[in-house]
Amino acid sequence: MSLATHPAVAHSFGAGVEDHAVFLTSPEVLDFSLCREFWEAAQQVRDSEMKIIIDLSRTRAIHDSGYTLLWMLKDSLNKAPADLLLMGGHSHLKRMLQLRGFASHFKRL
């Protein structure tokens, strides 16, 4: 998983103004081994206007612990779904995220 801060372009991410975002790029399996990266991302965006964008384009599977990390990230931040963005991902992952109730807490790009 890589962690980087980049300016988010308004038209690319649906923001009203140009903001900053923390990008997390998930590996083939999203699981609890990425706890540190998620914690660091949460610390960066807490009490700020920053967004978190999680790129799932390379991810083939999400273990239960990976879903737990996503919930913990959401619960630890006072962010609207428009500020917690999931990008990419295979159709079966999109379906699993929807079945687990993530649609109302994370915005899909």
Short characterization:
Residues 30-109 form the STAS domain. The protein is built from 4 helices and 7 strands. The protein is α/β, with parallel strands linked by helices and 109 residues long.
Describe this structure in words.
This is STAS domain-containing protein. Residues 30-109 form the STAS domain. The protein has helices at 10-13, 35-45, 64-76, 91-99; strands spanning 2-8, 19-25, 29-30, 51-55, 61-62, 84-87, 107-108. It has 109 residues and is an alpha/beta fold. The chain has one domain (27-108): STAS domain (Transcription Regulator spoIIAA, 2-Layer Sandwich), CATH 3.30.750. It has a five-stranded mixed β-sheet. The chain has a two-stranded parallel sheet with strand order 3-5. Helix 2 (35-45) runs parallel beside helix 3. The radius of gyration is 13 Å and the shape is globular. The chain starts with a strand and ends with a strand.
